[in-house]
Every structure is written in structure tokens, then in C-alpha cells.
Specification:
Elements lengths: L1 H23 L1 E3 L2 E3 L1 H20 L3 H37 L1 H13 L3 H18 L10 H19 L7 E2 L2 E2 L5 H20 L3 H4 L3 H17 L2 H39 L19 H8 L3 H11 L1
């Protein structure tokens, strides 16, 4: 049942992303409006028109040029995100002998008591060793990038002149199946690269993530005009470049940095501070007593009557 619901969940995730993008810029009477559009999106529209009309490159190359400009502007922030996540990942890998047994306890717990105790220990161990399962990134970098992505999305879709324009073999104002297939393959390759950078034992857990982004791109491609798909195509090449930089340049440097840090300050073995809490796992007896709360009291009353 879980496998059969997976495509629906991914489609829902894709729809959520589109709604988030729409939240930064809204449309009225078929035209984008809002603060983000006026401050960021409209200048993008003007630049696309400059490349398309003034330089005579056409709207396809105009969208590509503006996408490259925007991606270059926010690339340092993306690399910062990747560096923070990679740093936490390398620390987690180094600390596996200390965190691994606790994670195994979480997996093999047979009662609610054992599970809660293992989860408490795992969070305490993370605090002790200064690591975070969320990568230490936070939401701020993503929130900073979101208005740019939103404005670029609407500029690629609603810039005056795109309607009826063509680029290569496709119309920019209509969905294109071959172009969608290309971006699906592109993002699958990017996901495969990210999988190659994680330890072997974690790859089985990340298989779903490897297929989620390509499926999201397929959903976007089928539901968006080719002008928008074209901007995702350029974004895919930037994602691959960023992943290559992270895997082959950033991660080796951070791995050496983590080893040096722990060589100076070796991690101490984690000692569980959790007491033995009351087992809160429901039992058949407790459920029966819960469903019959007045049984003992009524029995007492009947005894007095006798």
C-alpha cells in the first residue's frame, strides 16, 4: 500500500512547491502582481525582453540568459547550504561508532519505553557531539532564495512576447514531452550523484529520495509551459555542477577538517542519562480497565448493599 501511494505523495509534494512559488507572486486577470514581482520579477521580465527583442536572441535564449544570471547570483548561498550539510554529514560519519549503537536501539526497540529512551539518548548524544540530523542549515537560506525562484518562474511564464514564441523544436507557451524527458533524466543524474556521495549503508534508505526529484520534475513538466521547463533545465545543470563541487572538492576538505578537529578533541563515549521510565505501551488489561472505568466502584456499591 505504501508503494502504491508514493506517486500520489510526490504529486502532492510537487503541488505544494508550486503553491509556495505562487505564494511569493500571485496573478490577477492573467498577470503576475505583488511586491516580489514588482521588485524582482518585473526587472527579470525586462531583461528577458532585452535579450529577446533588443539583441535579437529570441525568448528561449532570453530565459536561459536570465536563469544563468540569477543562478550565478544565488550560487554562493547554495554552496553555503551544501557546505553546512556536508560538514554535518562528515561529522555524523566520523561519530558512527558512538551514534550507531543508539540508532540500532531505536530500530530494535520492542516497547514504547525502549523507543522513547533510545530517542532521548540519541538527541542527547547529538547535542553532546555538536551534530544535527537536519544538517545545521536552517530555513533562512531557502527563504532567501525562494523569492528569486518565484519571480523567475513567473517571468518565464508571463513575460510579454513569450506567448506564441518558439525555441528549438518546441513552443514556449505549451508543455513539451521531449523537453520534460530531458529534465527528468538530468535531475535523476543529479540525484544519482548525491547518492554516490553517501556511505553504502545509507543508500538503501535514500532510494526513495533519488526518485522523488525526477518524478517531481515530470509533474512540473507535464503541467507547465516549456518556457518554465526551460528554466528548470538550466537549473538542473547548475544543480549537477553544485553537486560535483560538493562531492569532489568540498566534502574531502571537510572530511580532513573533521578528522583534525576530533584528533585535537577526541569524542568521549556517550553515557545514557535516561532513567527507566514507566512503560506506556498499551496492554490488553489497561485497555479493558479504560473501557470499564466504573466497574470497581459499582462492585463496591453492590458489596455494601449485601
Amino acid at each position: 500500500m505504501k508503494k502504491s501511494n508514493q506517486p500520489l505523495r510526490l504529486a502532492g509534494l510537487g503541488l505544494t512547491v508550486l503553491l509556495v512559488l505562487s505564494g511569493c507572486v500571485r496573478t490577477e486577470h492573467g498577470k503576475p502582481v505583488g511586491l516580489v514581482w514588482e521588485t524582482i520579477g518585473r526587472p527579470m521580465e525586462k531583461v528577458i525582453q532585452y535579450f529577446a527583442n533588443d539583441l535579437g536572441l529570441g525568448f528561449g535564449l532570453g530565459i536561459i540568459a536570465v536563469t544563468i544570471i540569477v543562478r550565478l547570483i544565488i550560487l554562493p548561498l547554495g554552496l553555503y547550504q551544501a557546505q553546512k550539510a556536508a560538514y554535518q554529514s562528515e561529522k555524523m560519519a566520523y561519530l558512527k561508532p558512538y551514534l550507531g549503537p543508539i540508532q540500532e536501539r531505536m530500530k530494535t526497540a520492542t516497547t514504547q519505553e525502549e523507543k522513547l529512551a533510545a530517542q532521548t539518548d540519541f538527541m542527547a548524544a547529538q547535542r553532546q557531539y555538536g551534530v544535527s540530523m537536519f544538517g545545521g542549515i536552517g530555513c533562512l537560506p531557502l527563504l532567501i532564495q525562494m523569492p528569486f525562484f518565484s519571480a523567475l518562474y513567473f517571468a518565464a511564464r508571463y513575460t510579454h512576447g513569450i506567448q506564441g514564441s518558439h525555441f528549438l523544436w518546441f513552443a514556449l507557451d505549451k508543455p513539451d514531452l521531449p523537453l520534460t524527458a530531458i529534465i527528468v533524466a538530468l535531475y535523476f543524474f543529479q540525484s544519482w550523484l548525491s547518492m554516490a556521495a553517501v556511505p553504502e549503508e545509507q543508500r538503501a534508505q535514500m532510494k526513495t529520495a533519488m526518485y522523488s526529484m525526477p518524478l517531481m520534475m515530470a509533474f512540473f513538466g507535464f503541467s507547465s509551459p516549456a518556457g518554465v521547463t526551460l528554466y528548470w533545465l538550466v537549473g538542473g545543470f547548475f544543480a549537477i555542477a553544485q553537486q560535483l563541487l560538493t562531492t569532489y572538492l568540498i566534502k574531502p576538505h571537510l572530511r580532513q577538517k573533521v578528522e583534525e578537529e576530533f584528533a585535537k578533541n577526541p569524542p568521549k563515549a556517550f553515557k545514557s542519562a535516561t532513567s527507566s521510565p514507566k512503560d506506556v505501551t498499551p496492554t490488553a488489561t489497561s485497555m479493558l480497565e479504560k473501557n470499564q472505568p466504573n466497574s470497581k466502584r459499582n462492585a463496591g456499591k453492590q458489596h455494601k448493599r449485601h
